[in-house]
């Protein structure tokens, strides 16, 4: 490629989580980095500012003057964007985010790719922490910000590059899943379910993408699969590499037993091939996070990391921003923020909270915001996902105009179905209405958790201010 001649790199849609992290990596590597976006908000806007990277608000052809050497195009960009039309007309070199990651950072390293509908960010963060504790000096790129590092990337001088492998498409000119570009030597599949309704029509399409990823793993590589997910297990049978399994409820090579939820997380015994290895203490709650830990343990042991190092890393892992992140505790009321939007993720998170706070009132604030939750695909499945919440508050669907006719998620129907399950549920016209309602409704000891993949109208700060 023309990478050796590149000095000035422009990021189109720079505030995406992965885009911002890649921009910071490029800057740290010595390139002049800048970019534009239309949606600029924390934490990524703050992160970029801290990195000294210039962010231009809004898209304009003037942003491309002088002409950059290379443009990294985010997958949020489509034809018709004024900047992409300028790039194509003027033949400015451009590349997708996953191709840039492969060519600038993965090539020449052992590629460890964490995939699956759920748990990618946490598992990738945990693996990065373990490899860091083992002094392997890993490079990594994560679709979130792990609290152990305060940023979602590291260049790393070691032999390994650890990356979150998203099944979402790469760019408007490359509709293949991002993880197909990452040359996996070791891959994790935490589970496969239907998601991303804006680009996939069925689970079968998603399965095809994962099958293609599995087919890229070399014979001397390894695939590590959640034994409790039938789809992942089915696809793993066609792998040309060795396969290891992990799980809690289904038989697996790596299992957890004697699970005890404690004040600051969980303890459990690690079972490998029916033999108990040791009891570990882990800082995150919930069975889903135990599975994430088992996947990370399996990868780490496969890569030769000693057991004591793994135990130390698990014990000192600080979690990830926006993954059941405690934002504040004021007046004995806790406010959590969670990225969850898929029914399975929401159910697992609320179950973890219920295990921790058995007698407290749990308020779940759910914003239908993703391309999938704005649609009525999970209209029925979302209702039981909130079984461990006591009170559910819902704002209107975000950007309903982007949903095809007849496919809009019905907040009214959702609230009605919850009430039929004897739940307290209420629909509001705005975030401010929710905040005003909570102002007079919250009691000492209450737990508030928000579910959204966006800023949710800055609801966390508004709640903190009212408390």
Task: Give a verbal description of the structure.
With 467 residues, the protein is α/β, with parallel strands linked by helices. 31% of the residues lie in helices and 25% in strands. It contains 14 helices and 23 strands. It has helices at 17-28, 44-50, 82-89, 97-106, 120-133, 203-214, 230-236, 287-302, 307-316, 343-356, 382-385, 411-420, 431-441, 459-466, and strands at residues 8-12, 32-37, 54-57, 70-73, 94-96, 110-115, 139-141, 153-154, 160-164, 169-171, 174-177, 186-189, 222-226, 242-247, 254-262, 265-272, 275-282, 325-330, 333-338, 362-366, 391-394, 424-427, 447-451. The strands form 4 sheets. Strands 8-7-9-6-12-13-14-15-16-17 form a 10-stranded mixed β-sheet, sandwiched between helices. Strands 18-19-23-20-21-22 form a 6-stranded mixed β-sheet, sandwiched between helices. α1 (17-28) links the parallel β1 (8-12) and β2 (32-37). The longest helix has 16 residues, at 287-302. The chain is globular and about 60 Å long.
Jot down its keywords.
six-stranded mixed beta sheet; ten-stranded mixed beta sheet; 23 strands; 467 residues; alpha/beta; globular
In short:
The protein is α/β, with parallel strands linked by helices and 467 residues long.
The radius of gyration over CA amounts to 22 Å
Structural class: alpha/beta
Overall pLDDT metric: 91
Rounded to the nearest angstrom, the distance between the terminal CA atoms is: 55 Å
Give the CA-based shape: globular
Low-pLDDT windows of residues: none
Oligomer: single chain
- Major sheet, described briefly? 10 strands, mixed
């Amino acid at each position: 490629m023309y990478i050796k001649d590149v000095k000035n790199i422009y990021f189109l849609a720079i505030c995406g989580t992965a885009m911002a992290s890649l921009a910071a990596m490029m800057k740290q590597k010595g390139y002049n980095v800048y970019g534009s976006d239309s949606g600029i908000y924390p934490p990524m806007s703050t992160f970029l500012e801290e990195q000294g990277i210039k962010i231009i608000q809004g898209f304009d052809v003037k942003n491309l003057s002088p002409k950059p050497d290379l443009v990294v195009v985010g997958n949020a960009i489509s034809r018709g964007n004024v900047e992409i039309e300028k790039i194509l007309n003027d033949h400015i070199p451009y590349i997708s985010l996953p191709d840039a990651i492969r060519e600038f950072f993965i090539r020449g390293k052992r590629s460890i790719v964490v995939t699956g509908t759920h748990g990618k960010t946490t598992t990738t963060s945990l693996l990065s922490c373990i490899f860091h504790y083992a002094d392997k000096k890993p490079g990594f790129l994560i679709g979130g910000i792990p609290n152990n590092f305060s940023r979602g990337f590291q260049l790393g001088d070691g032999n390994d590059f650890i990356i979150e492998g998203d099944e979402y498409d790469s760019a408007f000119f490359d509709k293949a899943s991002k993880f197909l570009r990452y040359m996996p030597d070791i891959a994790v599949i935490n589970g496969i379910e239907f998601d991303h309704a804006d680009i996939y029509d069925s689970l079968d399409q998603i399965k095809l993408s994962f099958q293609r990823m599995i087919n890229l793993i070399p014979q001397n590589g390894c695939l590590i699969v959640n034994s409790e997910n039938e789809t992942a297990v089915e696809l793993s049978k066609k792998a040309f590499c060795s396969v290891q399994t992990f799980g809690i409820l289904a038989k697996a090579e790596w299992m957890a037993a004697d699970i005890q939820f404690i004040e600051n997380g969980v303890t459990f015994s690690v079972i490998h091939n029916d033999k108990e290895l040791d009891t570990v203490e882990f800082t995150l709650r919930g069975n889903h996070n135990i599975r994430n830990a088992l996947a990370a343990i399996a990868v780490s042991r496969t890569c030769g990391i000693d057991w004591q190092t793994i135990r130390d890393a698990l014990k000192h892992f600080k979690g990830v921003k926006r993954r059941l992140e405690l934002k504040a505790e004021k007046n004995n009321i806790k406010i959590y923020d969670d990225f969850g939007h898929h029914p399975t993720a929401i159910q697992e998170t609320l179950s973890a909270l219920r295990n921790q706070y058995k007698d407290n009132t749990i308020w779940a604030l759910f914003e239908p915001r993703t391309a999938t939750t704005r649609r009525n695909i999970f209209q029925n499945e979302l209702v039981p996902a909130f079984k461990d919440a006591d009170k559910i508050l819902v704002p209107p669907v975000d950007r309903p105009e982007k949903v095809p006719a007849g496919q809009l998620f019905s907040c009214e129907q959702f609230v009605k179905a919850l009430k039929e399950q004897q739940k307290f549920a209420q629909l509001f016209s705005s975030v401010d209405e929710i905040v005003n309602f909570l102002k007079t409704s919250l009691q000492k000891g209450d737990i508030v958790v928000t579910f959204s993949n966006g800023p949710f109208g800055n609801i966390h700060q508004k709640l903190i201010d009212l408390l």
